[in-house]
Amino acid sequence: MKKFASLLMFSLAFANVNAQSEKTTSDGYNKWSIEASGGYNKPQSPFSDSYFTSTPSPYTLDLGFRYMLNNEFGLKLDAGYNRLTNKKNSADFDTKYYRADLQGVANLGRIMNFETWTNTFGLLGHAGFGVSRLDSKDNGKDYMGNFIVGITGQIKLSNRVALTADFSSIANCSQDLTFDGARIPDSRGFNGKLFTGTVGLNVYLGKYAKHADWTVRSNNADVSGLEGKIADLENQVKTIADKKPTVIEKPVAGPAPVEKDLIKNMINDKYFSVYFDFNKSTPAETSTAALDVVLTYLKNNPSSSVDLLGYADQIGKSEYNEKLSLARANNVKTILEKAGIAPSRINVLAQGADTTIAKDSEEARRLARRVTFKIK
Question: Rounded to whole angstroms, how far apart are CA atoms 282 and 115?
Fold first, then answer.
């Protein structure tokens, strides 16, 4: 019986730990996206005397393909088209500006931990180099190099689509035509300046539920302590399984002392914990096994009581984390009470943020968001 119970406890513990590990360490997120937008432009210089555009001037069209190397950095290849026309009081002109650029992208929303206050708004920064061309009816085509830098705000509409608003600045190298189409002799350096403002959509591609833009993860999760607990638990079960069975001549009421102490020690050593999603006080589905073990122990040992210790991760203000950890512990208490455990046997303790677990690792923060048990 002891061997069977021990193996059962190990299976439940391992299933709970494994479910948490699979949930927190998966690299499953989409990396590709298509970006399309349209809006206005404002060519700043060079211009001939008495030539100028509206502020801003229609119109601009952009199309790009982006690939994220991880949830913070990526690359995109994009192209743009701008039509430049005169304002009412300007001399007439109608030129076309084309560009193609390879840019680096930084997911500023993840870098600056936007997830601590929103899961809806994002921010991307981008910069890179490319080629461009200005077309004039009178003076032909002007081929240039360019440097582009910009920032893109995001509003997440769904896991597949985000609304974007972008502002970019483009500097043209050795621009030999003015934006109104006149010839400039012997131009040098980045003498052309053009600004664009657009609104558009990001469409995310791939088989996973989320895109890298909205995925919170870290490559440096510290789960060594958890792995050590699993190894220790395996050794305990192996030791008990290797022992020869003891012949009992008379029936013994209740669980055997060794088995009872083992389960209690496992609970108090935090092998069974209830975990929570970010900013949530309702237990995650993967915590069912841990609750079952604690509930079964309390029912089989009616003289025992339990402390519920609620924790939060270190994201957010300490006052809020204190309230959140208390709400998590109270929700676990409600579950135990509905299952038949008397309220007098349950003590709730809010521990606030768990400062023993790394703050900069999403996987570690998932392990911090929990309720642990102390059997007395």
Answer: 19
Query: What's the pTM?
Result: 0.57
C-alpha to C-alpha distance for 91 and 72, rounded to whole angstroms:
47
Q: Mean pLDDT over all residues of the chain?
A: 83
**What's the CATH number where 106 sits?**
2.40.160.20
Is residue 153 within 8 A of residue 172, CB to CB? The reply is no
Q: Are residues 298 and 352 in the same domain?
A: yes
Q: Among 181, 214, 247, identify where a domain stops.
A: 214
Q: Which residues contact 129 (CB under 8 A, 6 or more apart)?
A: 101, 102, 145, 146, 147, 148
Quick check: 185 and 165 in contact, CB under 8 A?
no
pLDDT in tens, 253-288: 555 555 667 888 888 888 889 999 888 888 887 777
- The closest alpha carbon to 129, from 100, 150, 109, belongs to 100
The pair of three-digit structure tokens given for residue 42, joined into one six-digit string = 């404002």
Q: Say how far apart CA 230 and CA 10 lie, in whole Å.
A: 9
Domain C-terminal end among 158, 188, 214: 214
| Residue 102: domain span | 32-214
236 and 153 in a common domain: no
